[in-house]
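Service request form, structural biology core

Requester: graduate student, group of Dr. S.
Request type: structure prediction, single chain
Budget code: on file
Notes: please return the result as structure tokens.

Sequence provided:
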Amino acid sequence: MLKKVDLPLEWKFKPVSEVCDINPRKNEVKNYSDSEKITFLSMESVGENGEIYSQEIKDLGEVFKGYTYFKKNDVLFAKITPCMENGKGTIAKIGTDIGFGSTEFHILRTYENVIPEWVYRFLALDYTRKYAEQNMTGSAGQKRVPKTFFDKLKIPVPPLKTQKKIIEILEKAEKLKEWRTETDELADEYLKSVFLEMFGDPVKNSKEWDIFKFGDVGKLERGKSKHRPRNAPELLGGSYPLIQTGEVAGSGGYIKNYTQTYSEIGLKQSRMWAKGTLCITIAANIAKTGILTFDACFPDSIVGFTPKKHVKVEYVQHWISFLQKILEDSAPESAQKNINLKILSNLEIPIPPLELQEKFVEISEKLNQLKTYQSQSKQEINNLFNTLMQKAFKGELVC
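Core staff response, request fulfilled:
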């Protein structure tokens, strides 16, 4: 919890529950038609820095009973471990007026004296998260932040004008983080141009390499999960990493982090995939890829690819990136687009000589080393930003 400090004049500490409606009731939308289009946000679709990776459009009738209700611009706060500790949360900048999402979100709707950005930034503070962790209830692996936590969590509340001014400062500072991300994107663009120079257009096969079916150059297998963790909490909380589509989509090419783990029971109804496996999403985030840097499990919304000896997994990963739009267009129209194993297996892939693939991998590895250095620089920027955030909520950024 933020320790009591001498706040500027006109600032006051207030319980979060006094400045926000916590978990608004669904009866606000009980008169809506079941066919009303809403935005659905799963836990996997929300990032650890406020990102929303994907927004699914569903009918209200599909989600009204079993999910958490929110409106545009509400604040979403992950309440379950380890998602809460990892910082999952966002402001619902969605394309519809109302939304539904995982039951593992608390929803905070700000009253007139507070803007959503102020509450979101406060909840994102490291010491707020640590205080929330201290107040979790439940058993290991299934601990949650209770609603009553927001009665005891006190937030410094300055005048609206001051809130907006501080948020403007923080958003400008956050641009530094975005610029660092853009350097990663430039590295990715460079690697894309190298790929085209070495192998030509992979869609047109402009260099006339031998063509194979994707399913013939390696093993393609869907992930395995007989039961959904949200319906069987005993599956979670062990030591076996569980990867979801959002983590593949946000991996930057290599999957280095995870937010959930399987227990021994969870592992028995799934399977472990080896480090180096190429993960390909086939639902929600279609044809996003990431290479595992550790052994992990994943559900059937992800396909694992293990290449044969004459194929390098990095080559396949970049080849898929050129086909993403084609694969998205081939997905059947539904509330959540998806593709299947048959579509992937029948894709035609040009296979250049192994020596050329290995040369590309060598270039790719050097760029990844550069990205690792940039990641360290990014961490320094993040540390500076966190310091700025702490000053902001102590009233030290404005006079």
